[in-house]
Design goal:
The protein is mainly beta and about 220 residues long. It contains two helices and 15 strands. Strands 4-5-6-7 form a four-stranded antiparallel β-sheet, with helices on one face.
Length: about 220
């Protein structure tokens, strides 16, 4: 069973930052990774980018969503473009290519859950929701990236990017049955009420070939 050391950066609303080492456990060997960067002081997240900060990446070329034809649905809303612009400026991962942006996921019942992604001039991929959540990645760890964000008295949010061969995702939570995530094109998202971020144990990925993998935080 392969293992990848990852780093979790926790930034609570009060500004407290805690760092812990985590491990990806799956049936396939994943790549070493040690790069972390919090996107804002109100969230806590696990970043799965490989440790090649400020260098070129091929992630944008690897994701199938950027290979399909664009439609009017792929036009990046202003709120999303502002979030992605901020993320790229903070992390210096290249200029965002908004004309190549794609809509990855949409929940028809709540427009806030629409998730868009934009490649950068250095090949990174930055994604964001209408509600202002977002992240930039240079590479996936194994088959996915995983971000867990929580605010006091708000639902815990679990989201990330997916490799092309991931068909479905379940969120593993402590003391409860797995919670199915909303899966779009190369992305997943789930809001869970009544749980703290620390109660999220990881995700289970179901691949198109019938195999499954688990991404465990602890």
């Amino acid at each position: 069973m392969g293992a990848v050391k990852l780093v979790l950066v926790i930034a609570a609303v009060v500004g407290l930052v805690v760092v812990a080492t985590l491990t990806w456990r799956s049936r396939a060997q994943a790549k070493d990774n040690d790069s972390t960067k919090s996107t804002n002081e109100y969230s806590w997240m696990l970043r799965s980018s490989i440790g090649r900060s400020l260098t070129e990446s091929s992630l944008a070329k690897e994701l199938a969503v950027f290979k399909r034809a664009r439609s009017s649905d792929d036009d990046i809303p202003r709120s999303v473009s502002e979030t992605i612009r901020r993320l790229t400026e903070e992390s210096n991962v290249g200029e965002p290519r908004f004309t190549r942006g794609r809509l990855l996921l949409r929940d028809g019942a709540d427009s806030r859950l629409s998730l868009y992604a934009v490649p950068t001039s250095r090949g990174w991929v930055c994604y964001a929701t209408m509600s202002g959540l977002g992240h930039c990645l240079s590479e996936l760890s194994g088959q996915a990236s995983l971000t867990v964000q929580g605010r006091r008295e708000k639902p815990t949010v679990v989201h990330g990017l997916l490799a092309n061969d991931v068909a479905d995702v379940e969120v593993i939570v402590e003391g409860h049955d797995p919670v199915p995530a909303i899966v779009g094109e190369n992305a997943f998202y789930r809001e869970i009420s009544g749980l703290t971020p620390r109660e999220v144990l990881g995700v289970r990925l179901f691949l198109t070939d019938g195999r499954s993998e688990e991404y465990r935080l602890r």
